[in-house]
Amino acid sequence: MLDLFDEDFDEMELVEGALILNKAIDPETQVEWAEQELSRLLNEAETRLADKAEQKERFDAFLHLFYKEWGFIGDREAYYDSDNAFIDKVLERRKGVPVSLGALLLYFGRKLGFPMQGITFPTQFLLQVNWPDETNRYLNPFTGEYVSNHTLQAWLIGMKGPLAKLKAEDLKVTDHPTIIGRWLALLKSALLREERYTLALRCTDLALTFVPDDPYEIRDRGYIYQQLDCHQVAMSDYQFFIDNCPDDPAAELLKTQMHALSHSTVTLH
Asked: Where is each Protein SirB1 N-terminal domain found (predicted)?
């Protein structure tokens, strides 16, 4: 059983926690190379910004370095590719999604002394930039551009409908364990799309160490076991979900699925 309870994600950089998560899911994650690349890029940034005395000027120069010269960019062509959630792959490909690009920006930004914090906005991960005595600004890591409250409101309406309103809690700074938990869900979803069921199963096992007996996570585990032809285990997980969430619309569908599985060949593992 994989166990991350010994890791204190709040005491480390978000990108460091993500590398631990990545390694736990895929042992082939290039952690040492990623750490060396982070160090190399940080040294380059420190050198490039050495002649910039004013903090805001340094920050603008850093964003130009990150997006224009290093070439990091949001992956619009394959947004849901699992490579976008593995930090070593993001560093290698220079492509990612808001949370992985945001984790890199936070790592470099904090090392360079910039006032940045992560926010799990309902639609995507954002970075809060809070200069002293100024109103907070919000950076979209996917593009490297600032987003206005009007844009954030539009994003919410697109997600939740025309009555959605931007609230202070939507822009609350998020702790690292919460971000890592959402990162894990994103990675599991990507691996399921790619039918990489063994790695997706590791995601579920990890999630259940944090939230034991979560019926929705156990339902998802049942689906993965079904794809791996472990039908008896799959049915056990489906039954757990049905017993704990009898009013969920998925419960009736799973009953039908269990009936079909009970008449299929039993595979023992």
From this structure: 33-184
